[in-house]
Design goal:
The complex is a heterodimer of chains A (933) and B (191). Chain A is α+β, with helices and mostly antiparallel strands and 933 residues long. Chain A is 64% helix and 6% strand. The longest helix of chain A has 20 residues, at 178-197. Classes of the chains: A alpha+beta (933), B mainly alpha (191).
């Protein structure tokens, strides 16, 4: 082809011939090509290729220029539906109101794809929307009834016709107050949560997509038009494409999240929807959007959304000037009251939803709805950090309606009780000063009605005792008040760490719940759970199990109450753990986790608690890698929910640090321990038991890393604290004492060390009886002491007892069993009992190999020791393999003690010398000499 | 606006290398982030190109004389991105890293390159060479293919961009596709 004209002709021929059935092409070619054989050959060639490639158009849709949609006339039938009128037009189709007669008579919304639009992409997008809607099954989301294809071949789908108005308009028309608006909003969140759980992001949430209708006398929220929705997981829905006409942007700009507005790398996920929900909440509350574009300035608006902080609700209301009173009127209030109403919680909630950074927002629609719910119930919301005064304010507000008789008494009790229990968490009770109490009262009074508050300095405990007495005797005729007060008192005692009193009140609350709601009620089961919790805290795990049996018996037959059941399962897991029955504990912990996952979701802190329990049990079973993974999960959830300064987060952090340490990930463990201690100091203050434990953990790690100078002051600080806190026996105190003993050992202060160990052991026996893990540990430490004093027979006796004890309680593959076995072996070596040593090591190795997470250093040491025993038993060849094969691993580990490294090297030298491998032996001899320096 | 311009009614002006560079960067970055963040099975050039277009028009950028120029530059940028990717993947494979088997370009379709696919480098390059030959033969036809495949425009969009009727585009398309199939040696290579 060498000129344009021929080319055009060829194209024209091809076009026409391709549209004909093969049989008729010949005639066309004859006509067009005539005598031009070359032309014909080329045309036929191309036709052949064209056929081979297949048609590129779905045959039903001849490509047409995008024209405005021809209106479908009224009365037209599509399938069983009769078109009534057009009610909307979207990106690639129109929505019609239609009537259905069979099998049900009702009005429906029929969404029809644009006639003439053809590309596979548009088709796929339409289908995707239908699939998305069909996935969902929730009262707050429009239902898809049907789908089909018209005679012309245009696809359509039929959904619930929502005859309603956009949520903002509805709220204004009905002049809904703030509470009612919030409740509507909660419905919206529930619907969105369902969508998110199905893996669908809406991406275009705005009032016109959220309609409110009336169902009877209740308002019902319906989310429609998931047209630009996108599935993120699960169903493989085809990706949608953006509309190409400039100016029609995905998502309506005012409601777009910052990440959508900047098309930035952060990507879009369910939290983008949360942002849009936040904008709608903003609008519902204050009648205006956080960001408005003045003129048609799309760019400017997008930039605002990305960069500018949204104005506070109250500020925004002010900025509306003359319009403000009207806005307030539409909320059935006046301007000043509205400002007061919006200030505080609601501002915080909205701000959290509108955070620029998705990770700082509510993690899901559900958590947003929950916080709104908490606000409505006068509970402290998550969005605000729990300052004491704030919590107390909430408590007073909650109880304000309750007290009939003795209002002042109730208020005084409540704020003293809770204030004290909350304050205890901030610092030690004994260090309170009068000014501090007064300060609290001041803050309290500004929120509550002026109570008959006394300024005198009375000990919280006295107040509580007096209160307790009165509550148990008075208020018989007012069980609800009584229950409230009992709850407060229980919390107060719990906060003071007085678990036996707390238990007493927990018992009373069970009675009270039974009386109020019945013995088989959910409330009774919940109260039993709380009682079990108190019992566990007071180290009465067996009693707790009995109580939990009662709780589960009630809950088993209930259809709802999954959270309570999950809680009961979790508590049972903890109880079994405390009793040392770890496989039972693991089973229940897993059930608890699963149930929580189902009923509250995997972002909830309750779920996190169950996961954390599971982690602790897994640790005891020696499954360290799994335990670590679980604890990380729990930590992440808790951190996300509470921020870094919350007790639960600290618990997770220190559990995780321990797990890391057990897996010899020392650097990470140390930094985590340090972080924990720093936070604990900040949150709890000096002298608090939790801080003491934290310091202790860090000290133990440092000691293990042989950094004794750093460890000593920490140990001593810890012991100091705990002696002050625990006048009598306490497991934490025993642990501290034996840790100091261990430190003295390192410093070769054997007499002092022995004193400590024996004190610790005696305390453990008093607490737990002879047969308990903690006792085993002190026995082990004493054995170590005896060893250092060269009292080997005594050391052997103690270590064997310790080892037997361990094996009765732990899985054979648990690392500590190996550690004890190894130590026992060394003791036996010193007494020349090589044959026995060999048995011990063989057995230990067999167990160690069975572990899911193998510890290379532990294995190496066992092999080395076994090798040593074989060497002395005359089997040098086998010994060599074991010893030489293990020595490098041992030398490389940071925590492996110097003197044992020396032992290992010496053994290497010995075996090589025995085998007359002088060169190799002298290499090791050199290294041994260097080590000793 | 500087830069050489081929004065042909159906050929958009040649974009300057600066414009091309900026566009290339934006598309590449966007593609990278999409691929990294979304678990999507497909990532068509259409999406990316349109997103960037919106972004740029939102900025009120006066740099693009007309849409045609933008889209042809975008097509060029996408082409480079595609080839770069294919090259990178090919290098990986040679280095012994196991990856998914490389996909052939679907010639029966040839609408909108899909970045989520690891195209066969050889084939991409062959397609490129063939397109150049087609360009010599049928300038507009080659442009149509480039706009449709690399920039992912639909038939209607291409028509609008080039200022001709959709029917013309369809005709060009039918011809170009058949011709390319022949040039690439044979039967439709399906994905």
């Amino acid at each position: 082809m060498d000129n344009r004209g021929s080319l055009d002709r060829l194209k024209s021929i091809l076009e026409r011939a391709a549209a004909l059935p093969t049989g008729e092409r010949g005639k066309l070619l004859d006509q067009e090509c005539g005598q031009d054989a070359e032309l014909r050959a080329e045309a036929e060639r191309l036709l052949g290729l064209h056929d081979a490639a297949g048609s590129f158009l779905p045959s039903r849709h001849p490509d047409a220029i995008s024209a405005p949609l021809p209106a479908i006339p009224e009365g037209r039938h599509i399938g069983p539906y009769t078109i009534l009128e057009k009610i909307g037009e979207g990106g690639f189709g129109a929505v019609y109101l239609a009537r259905q007669e069979q099998p049900i008579r009702r009005n429906v919304a029929l969404k029809l794809m644009r006639a003439g639009a053809s590309s596979a992409q548009v088709l796929a997008r339409f289908e995707a929307e239908r699939q998305v809607l069909a996935l969902m099954d929730h009262p707050n989301i429009a239902v898809v009834y049907d789908a089909g294809v018209t005679e012309e071949g245009d696809p359509y789908f039929v959904m619930e016709h929502v005859a309603g108005s956009p949520i903002t308009k509805y709220a204004d028309d009905e002049r809904l107050g703030v509470e009612d608006r919030l409740r509507l909003f909660q419905q919206l969140c529930e619907g969105m949560q369902h969508a998110h759980q199905k893996g669908v992001i809406h991406r275009d949430l705005k009032p016109s997509n959220v309609l409110v209708t009336r169902a009877g006398d209740k308002a019902l929220v319906k989310v429609i038009d998931f047209g630009v929705a996108k599935a993120v997981a699960g169903e493989r829905l085809t990706q949608e494409t953006m509309h190409t006409q400039a100016g029609v942007v995905i998502g309506t700009p005012e409601y777009m999240s910052p990440e959508q507005a900047s098309l930035s790398p952060s990507g879009v996920d369910t939290r983008s929807d949360v942002y849009s929900l936040g904008v709608m909440l903003y609008e519902l509350l204050v009648g205006a959007l956080p960001f408005d574009r003045g003129t048609d300035d799309l760019l400017g608006l997008l930039q605002l959304i990305r960069d500018k902080e949204p104005p506070r609700l109250t500020t925004r209301l002010d900025s509306l000037g003359a319009a403000a009173p009207e806005i307030a009127a539409r909320r059935r209030t006046d301007r000043h009251s509205l400002v007061r109403r919006l200030r505080g919680d609601l501002e915080s909630i909205v701000n959290k939803a509108l955070e620029k950074e998705p990770s700082r927002r509510y993690s899901s629609a559900a958590t947003l709805a929950e916080d709104v719910g908490r606000h409505l119930a006068n509970l402290p919301i998550l969005a605000r950090s729990p300052s004491t005064a704030y919590q107390i304010q909430k408590l007073v507000a909650r109880h304000r309606g309750v007290a009939a008789i003795g209002a002042t008494l109730v208020v005084a009790l409540i704020f003293f009780g809770v204030a004290m229990s909350v304050m205890y968490n901030q610092q030690r009770l004994e260090r309170q000063k009068a000014e501090h109490i007064n300060q609290f009262l001041q803050e309290m009074l500004s929120a509550a009605d002026p109570a008959n508050a006394r300024g005198d300095q009375v000990l919280a405990r006295d107040i509580l005792d007096r209160a307790a007495k009165r509550v148990t005797t008075e208020f018989d005729d007012n069980p609800k008040v009584r229950d409230s007060l009992l709850e407060t008192l229980q919390q107060a005692y719990d906060g003071l760490g007085m678990s036996s009193e707390a238990t007493r009140f927990a018992h009373l609350r069970v009675e009270s719940a039974t009386q109020l709601h019945g013995p088989k009620s959910l409330e009774a089961a919940a109260a039993l759970n709380r009682l079990a919790d108190a019992l566990i805290d007071g180290a009465h795990a067996d009693s707790a199990l009995v109580v939990l049996d009662q709780a589960t018996a009630i809950l088993k037959d209930k259809r709802s109450g999954s959270p309570q059941m999950a809680s009961a399962l979790g508590l049972s897991a903890v109880a079994f753990h405390d009793l040392g029955k770890f496989s039972e504990s693991e089973k229940l912990a897993r059930e608890s986790v699963e149930l929580y996952r189902q009923c509250v979701g995997a972002q909830d802190t309750l779920y996190a608690g169950a996961v954390s329990t599971l982690s602790v049990t897994l640790e005891k079973e020696g499954q360290l890698a799994d335990a670590e993974a679980a604890q990380r999960e729990a930590l992440a959830i808790r951190k996300e929910a509470w921020g870094p300064d919350h007790p639960d987060v600290l618990v997770s952090m220190s559990n995780l640090a321990k797990l890391l340490k057990m897996q010899r990930k020392y650097a990470e463990a140390e930094s985590l321990y340090r972080e924990t201690v720093a936070t604990e100091r900040r949150v709890f203050g000096d002298g608090h038991p939790i801080l003491a434990k934290g310091i202790n953990n860090l000290a133990v790690l440092l000691k293990q890393l042989q950094r004794y100078d750093e460890a000593e002051p920490l140990y001593l600080e810890c012991l100091e604290m705990q002696r002050r806190m625990f006048p009598g026996d306490h497991p934490d105190l025993a642990a501290s004492i034996s840790n100091v003993g261990a430190l003295y050992m390192k410093q070769l202060r054997y007499d002092e060390a022995e004193k400590m160990y024996r004190e610790a052991m005696a305390m453990n026996i008093r607490l737990y009886g002879e047969d308990h893990l903690n006792v085993a540990r002190t026995q082990h430490m004493l054995a170590g002491l005896m060893y250092s004093r060269k009292n080997y027979p005594e050391a052997e006796k103690l270590e064997r007892e310790a080892l037997d004890n361990l094996m009765r309680h732990l899985e054979p593959s648990h690392p500590d069993i190996a550690v004890y076995s190894q130590f026992l072996t060394q003791v036996l070596f010193r007494q020349g009992k090589y044959a026995e040593a060999r048995e011990v090591m063989e057995r230990s190795l067999a167990c160690q190999m069975k572990a899911t997470d193998q510890d290379p250093v532990g294995l190496a040491w066992s092999r080395n020791l076994l090798g040593q025993s074989l060497l002395h038993g005359g089997n040098a060849a086998a010994a060599e393999t074991l010893i030489v094969g293990s020595v490098e691993t041992l030398l490389a580990d940071a925590t492996f003690q110097q003197r044992w490294k020396g032992d290992a090297l010496q053994a290497t030298v010995d075996v090589l010398t025995t085998l007359k491998k002088e060169n190799e032996a002298s290499a090791y001899r050199t290294r041994l000499a260097e080590l000793k320096k | 606006m500087s830069g050489a311009e081929r004065a042909h009614p159906t050929n958009p002006g040649e974009p300057t290398s600066e414009m091309l560079r900026v566009l290339y960067e934006q598309l590449r970055e966007l593609a990278h982030s999409r691929l990294r963040n979304e678990r999507a099975g497909t990532l068509r050039s259409t999406e990316l190109v349109h997103e960037v277009y919106l972004r740029l028009s939102a900025e009120g950028s006066k740099k693009w004389a007309n849409r045609a120029q933008f889209f042809s530059a975008a097509a060029e940028a996408m082409r480079r991105i595609l080839i770069d990717r294919a090259r990178a993947r090919a290098a990986e494979k040679r280095g012994g890293i196991e990856g998914r088997p490389q996909q052939k370009v679907s010639l029966s379709d040839l609408t909108a390159a899909d970045l989520a696919i690891d195209y066969d480098l050889e084939q991409i390059l062959e397609l490129d060479r063939a397109l150049e030959r087609l360009q010599a033969l049928d300038d507009r036809g080659a442009t149509v293919v480039r706009l449709r495949f690399y920039a992912g425009l639909s038939v209607d969009e291409t028509a609008e961009v080039l200022g001709v009727t959709s029917r013309t585009i369809k005709r060009d398309w039918t011809f170009a596709r058949a011709w390319l199939l022949g040039a690439l040696g044979g039967a439709a290579a399906g994905a």
